[in-house]
Structures are given as structure tokens and as C-alpha cells.
Design goal:
The complex is a heterodimer.
Chain A: H1 3-21, E1 32-36, H2 41-49, E2 61-63, H3 66-75, E3 79-83, E4 92-94, E5 96-98, H4 110-114, E6 121-129, H5 134-144, H6 146-154, E7 174-180, H7 185-198, E8 202-209, H8 211-220, E9 225-228, H9 234-242, E10 247-256, E11 258-262, E12 269-271, H10 272-279, H11 294-299
Parallel strand pairs in A: 1-2, 1-3, 5-12, 7-8, 7-9
Antiparallel strand pairs in A: 3-11, 4-11, 6-9, 6-10
Helix pairs in contact in A: 8-9
Chain B: H1 2-38, H2 40-43, E1 47-52, E2 67-72, H3 78-89, E3 94-98, E4 110-116, H4 122-132, H5 140-147, E5 151-152, E6 160-161, H6 164-195, H7 198-213, H8 216-235, H9 243-267, H10 271-279, H11 284-295, H12 297-313, H13 316-321, H14 339-346, H15 355-390
Antiparallel strand pairs in B: 1-2, 2-4, 3-4, 5-6
Helix pairs in contact in B: 1-15, 6-9, 6-12, 7-9, 8-9, 9-12, 10-11, 12-15, 14-15
The chains are: A alpha/beta, B alpha+beta.
């Protein structure tokens, strides 16, 4: 192999590459599918609720965080993505979700999550090792109290009816580990911050990673509280019990799984059936023009 | 003073020796760990045992006699479908239920309830079914791993663990990156070693080393934001996270190592070569092109190969910029998913010890073997180069 022979080949390849770069895209607006990574709780919920447990298309762009999905949609005018309600930015907008064709759909909001009228409302839960004791019990009850649930609404999640605190406030130093759901991370951070402000002796050590990470920690018994945007599977509970951990489940808030598009996208409403066609493996929708309301909105952008 | 130093000398010597050997020790430990986690995937066998099971009365009329097959050490989930097919096919005597809500994992005991026609002797019927249609336990799972096109480790239907698309993703991004990086790195190396002198040279060297020190997540961020929007606006496409983006970012990341090593290789060419070329009246370009590059060929090749190793192993940046979708790229504007990014994105939430977890470790084994081969070749190439030089 000599450089005299390699160089021309490289040069030809290089120019052809540059030429091919200048080709333009198609005329139709292809939907850029933003998805979560396949082990996330959000992914699982979407798969179950929207796709009816069918598989996703393989050309989805899988992101490993709730925030990343929204950021990406904000940067890409033809993208669609789903994530927690609390992650909205100025560059994106929510789509109204309609249970069936023709209905005007419901926007995700604290109110529509609270009264359950938003179709993609899902419970967020935490798991504790057995019946919670001491500081963990008080923290949990504080979360479920009026104060904790106000933070839920402020962070853009759906609050639950508040419950009174019966456990005694923590006496002296205490520390516990909270790990899990990425969807709940913002909320958990707000809780931990407000709680530590009120009870400075209690250290809430919070990390994210995903529902699966939290649940894995619960199975190992290495975390005190696991945040999860999906419920533990029966096999996981069985595994935890083998390790001597008896996970107890508490619903702590509701989340509206929101469908995000770029703020300039003319579409306002989408049906769950259409979402399934967009994301599902055998789905027929691949361009925005195939969705009712997109082209119409294009001609008359101002509502 | 010197006496004290003398007394400690053997100790220091041992410490130095130990730190050298510890590298071998760590590599060995990493090997053992990865093989321990990923290995069961390679040698697990499918076994089953029949277990009598009492079935609650008053259910299905046909469900009077109900033995259950208990499966142990199920190698992996694809068997699930096969098993159902096999047993259904054989279902002249009965039908199968179960599996609906059960996610099979390696080493997990799973019950398959076999419904038999009334009047069939359960033991005999079951034996007949299993004899006529033994649960396939050939090497299918490992073959499927290396030849399977689908990567669906968390499917609710049939889980599939084929790494072909991931392998192609890794190879295509790496190839593109090297393709971009080699001309520029070579140019930079030649410029630094042959064309420039004094301060410029020192500054350039420091800057290139600085380039190597930029964390990969920062590169990822650049690709994610700046390159993404640039590619979108230049090409008019709706999507800038693709093979091209990944190739550019990886090229920028692997270029510094290639520049440094290629420059070293050029420097190693004895000055007598340059003097001889000059004496023959060769221009600077002719010297580089006809004398130095051919002379430093092996060193440059090794530099490129080490750059390849760097590109294959890169994780965070490619996870962010390639789009991370399971597609075999047909053009520069398709997204790809690499093996490293798959591990990074999925390992955290995969159930410990499950099929998904193990298959991710198996990907790790494949990656290690690939980088090991590349580095080994690079080593051999350098050895060849040195050998010839001294000869």
C-alpha cells in the first residue's frame, strides 16, 4: 500500500461525500420520532397505554432523560416526543390529547391531571422497604400532606388530596437515600429541598437514574425510598422478597404524560389512535401531512 | 541520608514492580467480571422438569388433568415464542397457556401450564408432547445474538437480542469518523513536524493536546446543539442528529491522538532521510510525499488504528449526537445506534441478572474483543516498523 495509491481514492471519496451532503430532503414533512430509552418507566407507560403493548418503530431517537426529549423537540421543528408535564420549555408546546376522533381533546394541566380528564394521566409512586419507620415515615407523610402536594402542583404535576401527618417529626440527625425515576426527579428535588429547609437535621440524599435504577436499588435493599413512574412487576417484588425486602407502594402524585411538539408546529390536537400509528411498529403515519389538522393549520396558523 | 535511601530501595523497587503488575491484574479482573455477567448467556442450557400441579376446580372444563412443566435456566426469551409454537403444534392432545404475564429471565423458574384433553393420562400426555417436540435448546440464542437484526430487549411480545444493527452502527460511525479525521490529522502532523518551527509549533502542540482533554460530554453537547442545528439549516432536513453529526464529533475527538502519534512517527524518521532528499534537490512537498510519509507509514498506520480504537470505544458523545435509533444507515442523514451507547443508555435500568442485562454485558465482551484486536494490530504494526528500522 503506498500513499500514491491511497490519496486519490481518499480524495474521490471525500468529494463524493461532500456532494452527497448538498442533496435536499423530501417535500413531505417527515415526523422525527423522539422516544425514551427502552427501560424507562415513561417508555413502559407509553407502550402500554398508547401502543397497547406493541413494539415501537425502530427509527425512533431514544433519549435517556425526560429533559433531553423536550430539549430535542425544541430544537427540531418536525419532531414529536413525550415526557413528563413539568419539563415544558418555551420552545415546545403540548398537544391536546383526544380519546377519539373529532373531540377537541384535553391539554395536560394540573387541573386536568387532578380531575383525571386528561387521558394519559399516570400515577407516580414511591416504594419503601417495608412499612416506613422514623424519618422516612415522616418524610412520606409530609409529601402526602397539603404542603407536599402544593409543591407537586407548583412543579407541574397532578396533586393528590392532602392527608394529615400523624408520624412524629424526626428528632435529631437522620439521613436516607432516595433514588429512581427520571420523570420524578424535578419533583423529588423540590420536595427534598423544601423538607431539608424545614427539618435541617434530616439529610435527603437524592439521585435520579430512572425508575429501573430505583427499583433495582429497592430489590437490593440499598435505597430507602425508590421513586418509580411505573409499578414494580410481580417478578421484581418476588426478587425483593427473596432478599428480605418487602416493598410497600405509595402513590405520591399524578403525572400527565405530555406529548410535545415544536412551538411552531401547526397541529393542536392528536388522538391516541394517531399516536399509536405514529409510534407503533406497524404504524401507518410517518409524515405530518397524514394527521388531520396539520395541513389545515398550515393554511390558517392563527386560531 | 544515602544509607536510608539504600535501605528503602528494595521497597521502592517492589512498589514500582507492583504498579506495573497491577495493570495486568486489573485487566484480568475486568475480564472476569464482564465474562461472569455476560457469560451465562453463552453457555446456559434449557432444561425442563415436569411438576404435578393441582389446579383450582371449576375452571375450564378441559382443565381436569393439569400437569405443569416447570422450566429452569431458560436461556433466553426468544425461546418463549418457540416453546409456545412447539407445544401448540403438538397440541393434538391439548393446548398451552401461560407465559402471558410472565417475563422470562435467565435462571428464572417459569411455569407452563399444559391443558390436556380429558381422559389423557397427564404424565403420558406431557411426555408425549415433550418427546415429539423437545424444547429447542440448540445454540440458537447465541447465533441469534450475532445474526439477529432486531434489538427489542424490552418488548412485551417477543424479546429479541440481535446486535447486527448495533454493530453496523458502531462500524459506520467509526469509519466515517476516521474518514474525516485521517486527512486532517495527517495534514496537521506533517505541518507540525516538518513545516513549522519554534513558538508556532509549541503552541500548536499544546492546543492539540488540549483538544484531547475536552470531556466527551462536552463534545456531545456541541454536536447536540450547534452541529444539530447547523446540519438542519445547511441541508434543509428536519433532523440533525445522525451519522454525519456523529462522524464529525468522533473525528474531532479521535484527531488529537492521531496527530500526536503520527507526528511522533514522522519525527522518528532519521534526519539523514531529509538531508538526502534535500541533497537530491527535492522540494519540501516532495520530501514529505515521497520520502517521509512512506518511511513513517507504519507509525502513521498505528496512529490511525489507535484513533479507530478511540472512536469505537467512545460512548457519551455518540449517545447524544447519533440520534440513537435502530436503523441500518442508508445515507449520512440516517440515525444510528452504537454498541457503547446502547450499554450506557440501557444498563442502568435493566433488571440485574436478566436477559437484557446479560446481553448488554455480552455486547461489552464483543466491544472488548474488537478494541483488543485493533490495539493488537496497532502494536504489531509499530513493532514491524521499529524492527525494520533497526534492521
Amino acid at each position: 500500500m503506498s500513499f500514491r495509491h491511497v490519496m486519490p481514492v481518499v480524495a474521490v471519496l471525500f468529494t463524493s461525500l461532500l456532494v452527497s451532503c448538498t442533496g435536499s430532503g423530501g417535500g413531505e414533512d417527515v415526523i422525527v420520532l423522539i422516544n425514551r430509552q427502552n427501560s424507562s418507566g415513561t417508555y413502559k407507560y407509553f407502550q402500554k397505554r398508547v401502543l397497547d403493548d406493541n413494539d415501537f418503530k425502530s427509527n425512533t431517537k431514544d433519549q435517556s432523560g425526560s429533559q433531553a426529549v423536550v430539549d430535542l423537540v425544541g430544537n427540531m421543528p418536525k419532531a414529536i416526543g413525550y415526557s413528563g408535564m413539568g419539563y415544558k420549555t418555551d420552545k415546545v408546546k403540548f398537544l391536546r390529547i383526544a380519546a377519539e376522533k373529532g373531540s377537541s381533546g384535553v391539554l395536560p394541566s394540573v387541573a386536568s391531571t387532578k380531575d383525571g380528564s386528561y387521558p394519559l394521566t399516570r400515577p407516580l409512586q414511591v416504594y419503601t422497604k417495608g412499612q416506613p419507620q422514623g424519618a422516612v415515615a415522616h418524610y412520606l407523610q409530609w409529601i402526602l400532606s397539603a404542603e407536599g402536594q402544593e409543591i407537586v402542583a407548583a412543579e407541574g404535576y397532578g396533586p393528590l388530596p392532602p392527608k394529615p401527618i400523624t408520624a412524629p417529626p424526626p428528632a435529631g440527625d437522620a439521613a436516607f437515600q432516595v433514588t429512581g425515576s427520571d420523570t420524578m426527579l424535578q419533583l423529588a428535588q423540590a420536595w427534598a429541598a423544601a423538607y431539608s429547609e424545614k427539618f435541617p437535621d434530616v439529610k435527603v440524599q437524592l439521585t435520579g437514574g430512572g425508575s429501573g435504577v430505583g427499583i433495582a436499588g429497592m430489590i437490593d435493599g440499598s435505597v430507602d425510598i425508590a421513586n418509580a413512574s411505573r409499578k414494580m412487576k410481580s417478578t421484581e417484588i418476588a426478587k425483593a422478597k427473596q432478599n428480605g425486602v418487602d416493598p410497600k407502594e405509595f402513590e405520591v402524585a399524578k403525572d400527565a404524560l405530555s406529548v410535545y411538539v415544536h412551538k411552531d408546529n401547526p397541529l393542536d390536537t392528536i388522538t391516541i389512535a394517531d399516536l399509536a400509528q405514529i409510534y407503533g411498529e406497524d404504524g401507518k403515519i410517518s409524515t405530518w401531512q397524514q394527521i388531520d389538522g396539520y395541513s389545515k393549520g398550515n393554511e390558517d396558523p392563527a386560531p | 541520608m544515602s544509607r536510608l535511601a539504600d535501605r528503602f530501595e528494595p521497597g521502592f523497587e517492589w512498589l514500582i514492580r507492583l504498579s506495573g503488575w497491577s495493570a495486568i491484574f486489573f485487566v484480568f479482573c475486568i475480564f472476569i467480571f464482564i465474562f461472569k455477567e455476560g457469560g451465562p448467556y453463552l453457555w446456559n442450557e434449557l432444561q425442563y422438569e415436569s411438576v404435578e400441579k393441582e389446579y383450582p376446580a371449576g375452571g375450564d372444563a378441559a382443565a381436569e388433568v393439569l400437569p405443569a412443566v416447570k422450566l429452569t435456566e431458560l436461556p433466553y426469551e426468544v425461546v418463549e415464542e418457540r416453546l409456545l409454537e412447539d407445544l401448540n403444534e403438538a397440541g393434538a392432545e391439548g393446548r398451552i397457556e401461560g407465559f402471558r404475564d410472565v417475563r422470562l429471565e435467565i435462571g428464572e423458574r417459569v411455569e407452563v401450564v399444559v391443558y390436556l384433553e380429558p381422559g389423557t393420562d397427564p404424565e403420558k400426555g406431557l411426555a408425549q408432547i415433550l418427546e415429539a417436540h423437545p424444547l429447542r435448546q440448540d445454540s440458537s440464542h447465541i447465533t441469534e445474538f450475532f445474526t439477529g437484526m432486531e434489538w427489542k430487549p424490552e418488548s412485551e411480545k417477543v424479546r429479541k437480542f440481535g446486535i447486527v444493527k448495533l454493530l453496523i452502527g458502531t462500524l459506520s460511525v467509526t469509519f466515517l469518523a476516521i474518514f474525516f479525521a485521517v486527512p486532517f490529522s495527517l495534514g496537521a502532523a506533517v505541518y507540525i513536524s516538518e513545516f513549522c518551527t519554534g513558538k508556532v509549533r509549541e503552541v500548536l502542540k499544546i492546543l492539540i493536546e488540549l483538544l484531547a482533554a475536552i470531556p466527551s460530554v462536552v463534545w456531545g453537547f456541541i454536536g447536540y446543539t450547534i452541529l444539530n442545528t447547523t446540519i438542519m439549516s445547511v441541508t434543509g432536513r428536519d433532523d440533525g442528529l445522525n451519522l454525519l453529526n456523529g462522524g464529525i464529533v468522533l473525528a474531532l475527538m479521535s484527531a488529537p491522538i492521531m496527530v500526536s502519534l503520527a507526528e511522533d512517527a514522522l519525527k522518528a524518521v532519521p534526519d539523514s532521510y531529509r538531508e538526502a532528499a534535500l541533497a537530491l534537490g527535492a522540494s519540501r512537498w516532495q520530501t514529505v510525499y515521497k520520502v517521509l510519509l512512506p518511511a513513517a507509514k507504519n507509525g502513521i498506520l498505528a496512529a490511525v488504528l489507535l484513533g479507530v480504537g478511540r472512536a469505537i470505544g467512545e460512548t457519551m458523545a455518540v449517545l447524544m449526537v447519533t440520534g440513537h435509533s435502530l436503523v441500518i444507515p442508508g445515507s449520512l442523514f440516517d440515525s444510528v445506534r452504537t454498541m457503547t451507547a446502547t450499554i450506557a443508555a440501557e444498563l442502568g435500568e435493566a433488571v440485574r441478572g436478566g436477559g437484557h442485562y446479560r446481553s448488554l454485558f455480552l455486547i461489552g465482551i464483543v466491544l472488548m474483543l474488537i478494541t483488543m484486536t485493533v490495539n493488537l494490530i496497532a502494536d504489531l504494526v509499530v513493532k514491524g516498523f521499529r524492527g525494520r528500522e533497526h534492521a
